Amino acid sequence: MKLIRKNKAPKDGEAAVKPKTSNVPWKILIVDDEPDVHAITRLNLKSFDFAEKNLTFLQAMSAKEAKEILQTEENIAVALVDVVMEEEDAGLKLVEYIRNDLGNKMIRLVIRTGQPGVAPERLVVDRYDIDDYKDKTELTAQKLYTTIRSALKSYRDLSTINANRIGLRKILDAASGLHQPQSMSQFFDGILTQIIGLCNLGENNLISTISSGLVITSSDERIEVQAGTGRFANIGASAKIQTEVQKIVRTCTDSIENGEKPDELPENIVPIPLKLHDKVLGFVCLENANQLSKDDRDLIEIMAHQCATALENLRLYVDLKEANRQALHMLAIAAEYKDQDTGDHINRLVRYTTQISLELGLSQQEAENFGISSMLHDIGKIGIPDAILQKPGKLTEEEFDVMKKHPVLGTEILGKNKWFSTAYNIAYGHHERWDGTGYPQGIPASQVPLEARIVAVVDVFDALTHKRCYKDAWPVEKALTVIKQDAGKHFDPEVVDALIRLYERGEIEL
After folding, report:
1. pLDDT at 280
2. Which of 51, 286, 23, 294 is nearest to 157 (CA)?
3. pLDDT for 201
């Protein structure tokens, strides 16, 4: 037989004693030079809780001490500030420091003074950005309760608005580049922040170890954690991830694979499915969000549906992008089909171009784009006669004039298609020289796009270090010596230096 203990009803005039919660408490900063004021404030607010969270107190005996606390403590919800401390207007100067120097508009500031004549209420309210003004004689236990509750409600609501603003900004920033794979994580991070804001968890909980959120998705039989806050924030990078977090991920993973609702999650975890056309693509898992209203849940499910749609759109884009890359690769193979070293030569050019681009400080995305596009550097050779392309000896002047047409032929093949714009630049400009004696235009290579200047170096480097129908392979050191001698004449010196640095570090694989 199970016994159920009934809570003792409070007597008239008594406040019901609420159970302590495990949520991260609200931070209250007390700034006053009277120890008794600190003691009375803590005593009167001892059993206080708001939104299922208790209070924790930070104490400063002067404005100077308060500044030190404000520089180290984040997310202070309310500050009770005395006016007269080390100076007659120390508290008012502290208010200006908080609002102007720290730029903290979130913390709720309540002025308390025992000398209202020094700081008249109307003057202080009109001149300073405060939220309340109280004469210390007014602050009975009940008045203090009301003041703190009102201040916390205001702080919570502002935090929620701010969290939604941050989340919305992330979503909008990601929206323009949503087709890019690396923007999807940013998109989900914005969605998660927005959802947690809607749950009224507020900024204070977003950085805590208690209230957290997690987005887990499934794509092509791969389970991925797309975004996380709180203790889930570094879930992908942490080597010592908590056992409970592992269990949550594993449970959601099994759920996605089985197509069933994860009913083995901890009670404080609320799962929101990412569903599209009756197919569950993943889950948003919210921790300590059991208080969600039906309206909140409905809104979150709408946002989760948008997440699922975005994920599916990205998947389609990635498939299309991969198809375009395959087409590009086949086109490159066709361009050099008559060369025995075609496939390996193309792969090496892609690798060298990507490595040098990264060495020069380009982003991973730019470097990969340059590398992939380098495959089409000689696409124009499709229009060059075999007798010239495969001639074992040196070309005559007339034959070389024909060979020099391949950059222009390449641009005619690639046209002005936006997808091939980088390949267009490479095909047209990789035979221009730094001193302006190259072809087809004969302009200084400093006026040529960087991607073409990079390919100009790696194309010659690969040609020198590998056997061709007209020559044997050179030792790497000899090839680098020749290329270095031509830096500033034939080649961009910075690109040459980058290639040499990579080789000296042992990162160039022939």
Report:
1. 73
2. 51
3. 41
Q: Can you tell me the distance from the alpha carbon of 40 to that of 212, in angstroms, rounded to the nearest whole number?
A: 34
CA 383/CA 409 separation, integer angstroms: 7
| Cα dihedral across residues 53, 59, 63, 68: positive or negative | negative
**What string of DSSP letters covers 465-491?**
HS-BTTBPPPPHHHHHHHHHHTBTTTB
Q: CA 263, CA 255: separation in Å to the nearest integer?
A: 9
Kindly state the tokens that stand for 122.
Answer: 């109307």
Output the DSSP codes for 385-409.
-HHHHT-SSPPPHHHHHHHTTHHHH
- ∠ CA(363), CA(367), CA(371), 5° rounding? 170
Q: Which of 321, 381, 394, 404 is catalytic?
A: 381
Q: What is the 3-state secondary structure (H, E, C) of 299-349?
A: HHHHHHHHHHHHHHHHHHHHHHHHHHHHHHHHHHHHHCCCCCCHHHHHHHH
Q: Which two tokens stand for residue 194?
A: 């927005």
pLDDT tens-digit readout, 374-411: 988 988 888 888 888 888 888 899 999 999 999 999 99
Q: How far is C-alpha 482 from the geometric centre of its chain's CA atoms?
A: 43
Does residue 381 have an active-site annotation?
yes
Task: Record the pTM.
Answer: 0.49
Which tokens hold the place of 147?
Answer: 């003041």
Specify the amino acid at residue 187. Answer: F
Q: Where are the beta strands (DSSP E) in 61-212?
A: 76-82, 108-113, 132-135
Contacts of 493 (CB under 8 A, 6+ apart): 434, 487
SS (H, E, C) 134-150: EEHHHCCHHHHHHHHHH
Question: Is the distance from CB of 458 to CB of 353 less than 8 angstroms?
Answer: yes
